Amino acid sequence: QVQLVESGGGVVQAGRSLRLSCAASGSTFSLYVMSWYRQAPGKERELVASITYGGSSNYADYVKGRFTICRDNAKNTVSLQMNSLKPEDTAVYYCKAERYRASEIFYWGQGTQVTVSS
After folding, report:
1. How many helices (H) and strands (E) does the chain have?
2. In tens digits, what is the pLDDT along the chain, a chain of 118 residues?
3. Which position among 24, 74, 75, 117 has the lowest Cβ density within 10 Å, counted as fewest Cβ atoms?
4. What does the DSSP 8-state code read for residue 43?
5. Beta carbons of 83 and 67 less than 8 angstroms apart
């Protein structure tokens, strides 16, 4: 079992930055691929970025060059640095832990709201 707690959401103006954090507890952090997803009103949840224990990262095309995912394996945390925010980035952002090579085992955080005003 993994518990995930997100923080760092808020309201920002377009063009500004925001940093989200996710703290994991309850299991061996190194076993999990960590990801950030988001869900806007009326839309499906979508992958934003993911990162393996070794630091290999993957990004959705719409955030490449603007967002950066990092993980601190010593502190069991993963962060998402979001720069040049756009109104269309407005969504609830969720942290996800997915067991490496066992994708049927996964856990979600409770989500944190990000609102970007124009």
Report:
1. 0, 11
2. 899 999 999 999 999 999 999 999 988 898 999 999 999 999 999 999 999 999 999 999 999 999 999 999 999 999 999 999 999 999 999 999 999 898 899 999 999 999 999 9
3. 74
4. S
5. yes
Structure tokens at 3: 């518990």
| 3-state SS record for 1-35 | CCEEEEECCEEEECCCCEEEEEEEECCCHHHEEEE
Contacts of residue 21, Cβ cutoff 8 Å, sequence gap at least 6:
6, 7, 8, 77, 78, 79
> How far apart, in Å, are the Cα atoms of 104 and each of 7, 88, 92, 97, 101?
25, 30, 23, 11, 9
